[in-house]
Prior knowledge:
By secondary structure, the chain is of the alpha+beta class. About 30% of the residues lie in helices and about 30% in strands.
Amino acid sequence: MKRFLSGLLVAVSWYHISAQQLYMPRNIKKAYENGTRDISGAPGKNYWQNKGVYNVEVKVDADSKTVSGKETIAYSNNSPNNLNDLAIRFVNNLHKPQAPRSGFVSKDFLSSGLHIRSLTINGEKYTVNSDEWGTVEKVKLHSAIKAKSKAEIKIEWEYPLSVQSGREGQIDPETFYVAYSYPRISVYDDYNGWDMLPHSDRQEFYNDFNDYTFAISVPRNYVVWATGEFLNPDAVLQPEFLKRYKASLRSDKVIHIANEKEMKSGKVTRGNKWNIWKFRAGHIPDFCFAVSNHYVWDGSSVQLKTKRASVQAAYRSGAKDFEHYTEWMQYNLDWFSKNWPGVEYPYNVMTAVQGYADMEYPMMINDTSIPDDFQDARLTADHEIAHTYFPFYMGINETRYAYMDEGWATTLEYLIGIDENGEAKAKEFYKNFRVKRWISDPSAEQDQPIITMSTQVSGAGYGNNSYVKASLSYLALKDYLGDALFKKALHHYMNNWNGKHPIPWDYFNSMNTGSGKNLNWFFENWFYTNNYIDLKIKDVSQSNDLLRVNIENVGGFAVPFDAILSYTDNTTEKLHFSPALWEKDEKQTYLTVPVSKKIKSVTIDGGIFMDYTPEDNTKNL
């Protein structure tokens, strides 16, 4: 018992010391001091998060292009604090002319935004002028919501669908992607309190894990695809199409539930003037849906370890890539479950809708059609479905820390791409589409530290931090630890924070604990510096059967690379070196390689870790 306690104290002490090597903002330090987060990487003994149970009735008027609804939210304040304000978020106020945005929009993007008809909190009516609201607003409460108590919020509201479709809006005059469609309680968390960061259309989202029940009223002949379990197909579908839909839930083959002609015939849905489609989803960070009266509807399913998951696609007739989406998604869900991240797809359905966003939502994606490049189209689907794990399985704060989800989706897209397209094509695509623009551009904004809060960078700085450099850091760590240990550490992190809200320090500390290694030198190197990738061979010498190579790390990132040895007899040999090479000295390293033949030249090649100055990566003897 004494030996066990001693070991435990040593371990705790080691993690405490190692964690102090990484800079923490003052509010994050306070979370650790308060015990809501633990230095081991796990949620602390005092961890909490708030939750809403949303019961929503929503109506989509296809003629006026208006979404209206009423909702009841049972809100649990699990925090230790009394809440004197209630922050209400409505992302689609981004469409208001006066809303701050990250870029130019057309007139078709603009709308009048949210109109709140009524707001009641714990039975008390509130008068609010929603015309003056942005994407998030605080309402001063008449009576505080006490710590560890519940409140009931009722809201009636409406807003117009924008003509221009991006993440949501009118895909065409009779097809709508209805996302971020309901006022919600903003996140109140342990390190910032109320999340009051406005949505600007660049950084993405941060939501509580809530329970949702939606009743969606649409005109006859309109089909609804949505997040969650479809509760009443018998009540809204005609018998033949109900039969096909139910068959798709058990089928390995793609079933054409309804084609364009059938959709336009008006015989797919029940003949009521309005049909009410009901869906339910639990412990997820958002809910969305799409409606159309002419989109093709395909369906199938895939058997996973513990369940059979439905895959569905809704698209414009003739979209050649979307004709393959259902089978692609079958493969995708199976591959992610079995390989990387190697965690079973957590939901019962995944639906792809042809739109314009290339955007992920819980159990749904909204993708542009790329009919003339199936590799690109499929990788787009891969990327968006990979987001299932980050930020939905893990409740990432994408607004502040976009690299915690976009970097992982980019990595998973690359890894499944190797399987789908072969390693050479996958590497070429990753280099050209992801890395090349960053590493070729020496502008200062390219080299801002990844740890920089995502709302404080823009343009290339935002894109490269969130997608490129973050992904490269994860792949470099995979190379450093090896697949087995990397997956063990990754699963430790994911198990710690599934259904909760991790921040970067939870990732760092979880990976330390999960791998049993102090990786803070690596995290410091990749996340806290202005580094880039630039290796240089300074000197090469051969003495009999020993080759010595001096490599300078000009750019600073701890990257893996291959050393290609060319012999005078025109044969070559390739040796791989992991980032472990830079652990003791991040500025330079000396390779000492036993050889049996005369060396002609040495070349170092980082592969996807593209070098800023490749011309100094070869040295002749």
